[in-house]
Amino acid sequence: MAKEDLRIIKTKEKLSSALMVLLKTESLKEVKISELCAQAKVSRATFYNNFDTVDDVLSYYITKFELPLEEILEKNVANLNLNDKSSLPRLWKAYIFPIVAELEKKKDEIYDVINEQKLSGDFYLAILGFITSTMTRILPLYKSQRDVKTPDEVSIAHAAGGMTNLLFNLLQTGDKYTLEEKQFFVYHLVFEQPNSFFELQDSKGY
User: What is the C-alpha end-to-end distance of the chain, expressed in Å?
Assistant: First the structure.
């Protein structure tokens, strides 16, 4: 796939950054394209050359600009050895740590957005959708090493919802914890703790 022209990337970055400014005071549904263009200092024609809707700008912010995880995931999934029990923890770390690091890097900007949008807002739902998508890709690998008895959609909803809420709450703690501590908390609660529970079940023959 050909790389995007640098000018296109910069334009998309300007629009996505401008959207984050607007989301500090209004909901995604309230943001008008004209208002977004004015904030980013680009024309409507330029907007439509890059995006179709304001929702598309938010999706770009999360998946392409602020949380560029596709390449990391593809690389780690491709190198995963399902016969090696240590491979799955490495994959989880490769998935979780960059998400936490990217959110931490932008925590001051995102904190105000979270306070405005709340946990039921469009920004939250967009993050939840992104994490749900990546959880969907990782679940088959997890199931290859663990006997998961619940339907896939139930397992994914539980894991993605819990992780999204945890990430948002950690963002709201500000500088109370270091980046490394936040990464450990997410990894421990999302991966290590459930694994310990499964191992306990296995040992007791549940």
Answer: 48
